[in-house]
Write a structure and sequence with these properties.
heterodimer; A: about 240 residues; mainly alpha; 11 helices; about 75% helix; B: about 375 residues; alpha+beta; Rossmann fold; OB fold (Dihydrolipoamide Acetyltransferase, E2P); six-stranded mixed beta sheet; about 35% strand
């Protein structure tokens, strides 16, 4: 009991004192997972849209593969990226192993299936007649697709939230390709593992609190966007569509 | 429109036409329309049961789907799904409203933005149509708050603001309950003609078709079974399907006995009926269906003297049931018949179970078809 109480006190002390070590780790976590999420959205969302609205041979297989990606073990993804980026690997010349970039790549691989899979489900939940109805009102393909995606927007944001969840709490891939180098690739999850092993439970616990605070804050923000009025703007206000 | 009901079919003036239009899904031919045309100012209903290919025809005419064969003509010029300018002269309203989230006004503006109508015109056009369809008080309402009838009207208004050359409606009253449906139909009639060059109304509801349309095309198994005015279809249905589908027709089975000039004599049950001869003529001995409408059966006292109707049959009342404002009378005798009579004449004739009456049927009210059709 003392241990936990002490850990909590220490956690708040570390947070309140803006400890440099902690501050760096938090910043690196946000950079890596933010970058990974951005990359996952850039790649996963168009893929999800393609699978959600497209009809082409092999589509079902791609959908199944996408959903299989939900269950990708982070250590396996980490191993894969490790091999690709290792000195003898196909991308070894880039010397990216044990860098934040490597972590971004690995985590993006983990998050992309969530972004693609959840948005694809959301897009498919909208009746396809919505797009046809938009076309029947004179909309071109782009505008009709936009009208369809707009109706799926809550689900698409849920896809982003799911993708974020897949990376921010992930430790396996981050350790394997990042290496947990202090000041470079040490992030909250890898630091928690390390501090726990060292017996620094207070620090580990403090980092755990911070991690959860970040997750909560980001999700509150994303949910506000999802449920809030900004998304209620209309399809007519997209001149490019 | 010609008196024969085929005005647009003769066609130089056709605004929108389909020629040899075929659409297959796998092996199944869903649409096979040899010819269908609609003139400016006309309301054409395409009437048929579920699965007749109506909705596919709707998408083909709207240039949303490519036919496997045949073509769609706009002002006599062939047009294709890729032709955006042609597509913008058409507007379609799907069976379900599929409103876009946002306000009613946002929805009304959707097509205007898509068509590149100048922003300065948006307000006037949306306000005008909203007013005409009784939506003036709802333009700023969010679509999630609308009732089913309101949503349906918004869906219609959204197409009407475009002032299309041809407005196509797929089952516009299908999702509505009976009362709202009647009112919607009344409102629809006026506004449609005002705001659209021509209207194609897809429906499985004969009441929609007959109330709103100048001509009705009856669709069966992907083909157009008959095109004509509502009057044509009820007085001279070309096939049993049309007969059954355009009114509540009832059926008797019989055999042709003789064919005389213009009439055919059919034995049905223990009765001999005289009907107008169908074309082509039927050989004696041919098994036939004889169709009639209960409202064409006139009831007279059992001892009625001479009457002009070709068929008069001694009948006994088996049962009576109220049907709308009328009374449906089931009769037994040489054949079984049903008749629709007013309460007043039921009283006058003393119609009650067991009562004897004479059933009168004009030969023109009986439609004879070969049974194998």
């Amino acid at each position: 009991m003392d241990l936990i109480a002490g850990a909590i006190v220490e956690a708040f002390r570390l947070i309140a004192s803006l400890d440099r070590y902690v501050f760096e780790i938090v910043l690196r976590s946000i950079q890596v997972s933010g970058g990974a999420l951005l990359l996952a959205v850039v790649v996963g969302l168009p893929f999800g849209i393609l699978l959600g609205v497209g009809r082409f041979p092999g589509r079902r297989l791609l959908v199944a593969i996408t959903y299989t990606g939900f269950a990708l073990p982070p250590v396996v993804v980490g191993l894969f990226v490790y091999l690709v980026l290792s000195r003898e690997g196909p991308a070894g010349a880039l010397a990216l192993l044990f860098s934040p970039t490597a972590m971004v790549l690995a985590q993006a691989l983990l998050a992309a299936p969530y972004v693609a899979g959840v948005s694809l489900a959301a897009i498919q939940a909208v009746p396809p007649d919505v797009r046809l109805q938009a076309r029947a009102l004179g909309a071109g393909r782009g505008r009709a697709l936009w009208a369809h995606l707009r109706e799926a927007r809550l689900g698409i944001l849920a896809a982003v939230i799911a993708g974020f969840g897949a990376v921010i709490s992930e430790v396996g891939a981050a350790t394997m390709v990042g290496g947990n180098i202090i000041g470079e690739t040490r992030v909250l999850t890898t630091a928690i593992v390390l501090e726990t092993r060292r017996g620094n439970f207070e620090t580990a616990m403090a980092l755990g609190f911070i991690l959860m605070a970040i997750v909560l804050t980001v999700n509150v923000l994303l949910t506000r966007v999802q449920q809030g009025p900004a998304w209620e703007r209309t399809a007519t206000e997209r001149p490019w569509a | 429109m010609g008196a024969d009901g085929h005005g647009a079919a003769l066609g130089v003036s056709a605004l929108l036409a389909a020629e040899g239009l075929t659409r297959r899904y796998g092996e199944r031919v869903v649409v096979d329309v040899a010819h269908l045309a609609i003139s400016r100012g006309e309301v054409l209903a395409v009437l048929g049961p579920n699965g007749a290919g109506k909705s596919t025809l709707f998408r083909l005419l709207l240039l949303l789907e490519r036919p496997d064969a045949g073509r769609v003509l706009l002002d006599g010029r062939p047009v294709e799904p890729g032709d955006e300018n042609a597509r913008r002269r058409l507007a379609g309203v799907f069976q379900r409203p599929h409103l876009f989230s946002g306000t009613v006004r946002d929805n009304l503006r959707f097509g205007l933005a898509a068509a590149g109508v100048r922003r300065s015109e948006w307000r006037a056009r949306t306000d005008r149509v909203a007013g005409e369809l009784g939506l003036a008080g709802l333009v700023d309402a969010r679509v999630g708050r609308l009732s089913g009838g309101e949503a349906q009207r918004v869906a219609l208004a959204r197409a009407l603001v475009l002032e299309p050359d041809v407005l196509l409606l797929d089952e516009p009253t299908a999702g509505l309950d009976a009362t709202i449906r009647r009112r919607f139909r009344e409102e629809l009639g006026g506004v449609l003609r005002e705001r659209a060059g021509a209207v194609v109304l897809i429906t499985h509801d004969a009441a929609d078709a007959f109330d709103l349309a100048d001509r009705v095309a009856v669709m069966e198994g992907g083909r157009i079974a008959q095109v004509g005015t509502p009057e044509d279809l009820t007085t001279d249905p070309a096939t049993p399907f049309v007969a059954a589908f355009t009114g509540a027709e009832l059926l008797l089975d019989g055999v042709v006995e003789t064919t005389e000039e213009g009439t055919v004599r059919v034995r049905a049950g223990d009765a001999r009926l005289v009907a107008r001869a169908p074309e082509p003529a039927l050989e004696p001995g041919t098994a036939v269906h004889v169709r009639y409408r209960p409202e064409d059966v006139t009831l007279a006292p059992a001892d009625v003297p001479d009457v002009s109707a070709r068929n008069h049959l001694p009948m006994r009342v088996r049962s009576t049931t109220p049907s709308g404002g009328l009374i449906r009378v089931r009769l037994e005798g040489p054949i079984e018949l049903a008749a629709l009579v007013t309460r007043e004449s039921a009283e006058r004739l003393g119609i009650r179970p067991g009562a004897a009456v004479t059933a009168l049927l004009k030969s023109t009210a009986l439609h004879v078809y070969a049974a194998h059709r």
